[in-house]
Write a structure and sequence with these properties.
The chain is built from nine helices and no strands. The protein is an all-alpha fold. Helix 1 packs across helix 2, helix 1 packs across helix 3 and helix 6 crosses helix 7.
Length: 195
């Protein structure tokens, strides 16, 4: 099937992804049809299939892109060799990165149930890769004797859940600034790991 004359894949493809993300986050993956996504983009429903084989593939693409960007951004920032400084970097990074991507974060936690086992495994592997980054920091702190943790894996899961939770309540212009939230959360995490 050919695209209409005058259509631009470099514009339409990103618009499809952006509208799908917005609609999935607002209404839930199961409640959104390809026809609704097409209408939001301003194309015929059949045109979507030039960009994605189906709705689940579109969701997987959104989730994978978010995780790939999260991991790459974390690995790109300068990291201290000091476990405490690295943990603070992680806390501040996770909050800052995810507050800029509230819809993507919401989908990453709420829409996994809509993936086939094969697609779930792809996203789960990426999540484990990111979790391993934090767990490595915690283990290095344990080895250096600066963190007191009964279980580094459990601490990893608890810290990520706590930091990701900021997205559920933080509102720009609210009582606390982003910087203040980062500072408070860093203090809570620092105390939680016994630093």
């Amino acid at each position: 099937m050919a695209r209409k004359a005058g259509s631009h894949s470099e514009i339409t493809g990103p618009k499809i992804r952006a509208e799908a993300q917005r609609l999935f986050a607002r209404h839930g993956f199961a409640a959104v049809s390809m026809r609704q996504i097409a209408a939001a983009v301003g194309v015929q429903a059949g045109a979507l299939y030039l960009y994605t084989p189906d709705k689940e593939a579109l969701l997987v693409d959104l989730l994978k892109t978010h995780m790939d960007e999260l991991i790459a951004a974390w690995r790109a920032i300068s990291k201290s060799n000091d476990p405490t400084a690295r943990l603070e970097e992680f806390v501040r990074f996770h909050i800052r990165f995810n507050l800029e991507r509230a819809e993507a974060v919401f989908l990453s936690y709420m829409e996994l149930r809509n993936l086939s086992p094969e697609n779930f495994a792809v996203i789960e592997d990426l999540r484990k890769t990111y979790e391993t980054e934090l767990e490595a920091i915690l283990k290095s702190g344990q080895d250096a004797g600066v963190f007191q943790l009964p279980d580094s894996k459990l601490a990893t899961m608890a810290i990520i859940a706590m930091l990701t939770g900021v997205n559920t309540w933080f509102r720009e212009g609210g009582r606390l600034s982003r910087d203040k939230v980062e500072t408070i959360y860093w203090d809570m995490v620092r105390k939680a790991v016994g630093a």
